[in-house]
């Protein structure tokens, strides 16, 4: 099966499973698990932050960060389509009484700092207290300009706001920039990184930041049920991923670029892959896609195609707006360590045949 729905679909390799099998473990709630401790130290060092905390998921990692930065009645400013706002079930508001202030992302994944300025609430009892700016890198598979990150973090700290990075795919940004990940996260107070996406571990994220913030986050991890016992079994997969899978992520970017160029050879298909893109290809299908995903699945290729209708797309073209073409579509195709270059060629051929 060639699964391009997400980079979260990877299966742990035999070598990864072996290190999980032999992992030295203890009860991590008693701070007794040497493998978890090793992963935490290793990640803190890699990202050049004082402390780290292992958590089961990126969602819990972001939530622990938000809870540690903000109190009830505080606010965080975040992208309208950011994972930490739109796709985390409203956890900050529901569980933390923290109000999100979503703002539109710019095309490059930044949030306009003038808009952030306007969104910061005055020091007046009518208003919620703005405490945190939350950014994301990569954003929809795109590397956010680092000079913006530096400016945004300075802007935030000049206004006494904390700054958190959802770096679920920070690893992709680091190989894209050809720098150590620590360089990209220097401007941020806290950073969440995921091990279960392009890195290929079955589970796990790590939140890094200053000692006091991580100590506070540990409190919330316990409250959320994320303090785990012999978690070294899964932390071992994370260590393996950092040691073995971090640098190979560049292959996923090459495969994504190849996929985009092969798809662009097919009439009626437009695949966007600009300079800053990493392992995601955004594809627009100009013709009917009603049965495309189904046809591809018959070839053991898994993709999610979203149908565009009415105001979703540009219907100014009379052909596209015509009744014969009820459903154009878009897809996000994601490359990862379980997809090789031959698979990419297979997918492009299958799309050409099935579309
Ligand atoms: C940018 C981003 N942040 C956070 C998460 C949450 O990670 P998890 O699925 O481990 O909760 C995801 C998941 O896909 C993500 O894409």
Determine the mean pLDDT: 94
If you compute it from the alpha carbons, what radius of gyration comes out, rounded to the nearest whole angstrom? 21 Å
Distance N to C terminus: 19 Å
> Helical segment tally?
15
Number of strands: 13
Strand percentage lies at: 15-25%
Shape: globular
Q: How would a crystallographer describe the biggest sheet?
A: 7 strands, mixed
Output the structural class.
alpha/beta
Q: Could you tell me which ligands this complex binds, including any ions or cofactors?
A: pyridoxal-5'-phosphate
- Walk across the major sheet and give the strand order: 2-8-7-6-5-3-4
Percent of residues in helical segments? 40-55%
Low-confidence stretches: 311-325
Topology as a string of helices (H) and strands (E): EHHEHEHHEHEHEHHEEHHHEEHEEHEH
Description:
The chain is an alpha/beta fold. Helices cover 40% and strands 18% of the residues. The chain has 15 helices and 13 strands. It has helices spanning 14-21, 34-46, 58-69, 83-86, 91-96, 113-119, 146-158, 170-177, 181-185, 211-223, 232-244, 249-264, 292-298, 318-321, 341-354, and strands at 2-3, 51-55, 74-79, 99-103, 129-136, 162-167, 190-194, 205-209, 269-272, 280-285, 301-302, 305-308, 328-334. It starts with a strand and ends with a helix. Pyridoxal-5'-phosphate (PLP) is lined by residues 8, 57-59, 83, 136, 166, 168, 194, 196, 205.
